[in-house]
Write a structure and sequence with these properties.
The chain is α/β, with parallel strands linked by helices and 195 residues long. It has one domain (1-193): 2-enoyl-CoA Hydratase, Chain A, domain 1. The chain is 56% helix and 12% strand. It has 8 helices and 6 strands; from the N terminus they run αβααβαβββαβααα. The protein has helices at 2-14, 38-42, 46-65, 81-84, 110-115, 128-138, 143-177, 179-194; strands spanning 20-23, 69-74, 91-95, 101-103, 106-108, 121-123. Strands 1-2-3-6 form a 4-stranded parallel β-sheet. Strands 4-5 form a two-stranded antiparallel ribbon. A hairpin with a 2-residue loop joins strand 4 (101-103) and strand 5 (106-108). Helix 1 (2-14) packs parallel to helix 3 (46-65) and helix 3 packs antiparallel against helix 7 (143-177). The longest helix has 35 residues, at 143-177. The two termini are 28 Å apart. The model has no long low-confidence stretch (mean pLDDT 83). Its main location: other. It is found in: Peroxisome. This is Enoyl-delta isomerase mitochondrial-like protein.
Length: 195
């Protein structure tokens, strides 16, 4: 999924017909997190860890470098990376059903996420169509003005965010290779299988 989203971001960044990239999901969840299946423990080799790390880094770099309006429409709970990347989107709309935004191990509802600046606006889940109508109207505004504003607002942070992402990926690689994580992961799977 990360590779596909990275390709979509990079291709739409070059497409002059695209002004807004809106990311949402089908179903009840914005994201249920990465699949932590039993096969993952056996597949955690240095090569697969490096490849996965590189894929996630490229995805986050594509978000950071995205030159157009980047909007998340959070239609339900967001778990894992899907919640942590919201801070680098330009605008985040969250359904009032986005009840558990797992952020730093703390379950946060959409209203609380708005209070802390992670979400721009909370909408009634039954009014999702209003968000798309609004974005359709935004797409009719001056693209030059919107792109200039985006360029000016992101210019100062972009370099720092890229460095932070690189550091986070180094740390993630260390965590993924640590015996502690592998032990915790196996314990998690054994508890999950007992349920």
């Amino acid at each position: 999924m990360y590779k596909e989203l990275t390709i979509l971001l990079n291709e739409s960044a070059k497409d002059n017909k695209v002004l807004i990239f809106a990311l949402t999901a089908n179903g009840d969840f914005f994201s249920s997190g990465n699949d932590l299946g039993a096969s993952m423990a056996t597949e955690m080799t240095p090569t697969t860890i490096e490849n996965a790390n590189s894929t996630v880094k490229d995805f986050i770099d594509a978000i950071i470098m995205y030159p157009k309006l980047l909007i998340a429409v959070v239609n339900g709970p967001a778990i894992g990376i899907a919640s942590t990347i919201l801070g680098i989107f330009d605008i985040v709309y969250a359904s009032d059903k986005a009840g558990d935004m797992l952020y730093l191990g703390y379950k946060m509802n959409a209203q609380e996420a708005k209070k802390y600046g992670l979400v721009s606006k909370v909408y009634n889940h039954d009014s999702l169509e209003e968000v798309w109508d609004y974005l359709n109207n935004v797409s009719k505004l001056s693209s030059e003005s919107i792109l200039a504003t985006k360029r000016l607002m992101s210019k100062w942070d972009r370099e720092i965010l890229l460095k932070v992402n690189a550091e986070e990926m180094k740390e993630l690689k260390k965590r993924l290779e640590s015996p502690d994580l592998i032990e915790r992961f196996l314990n998690f799977l054994s508890r999950k299988n007992k349920l």
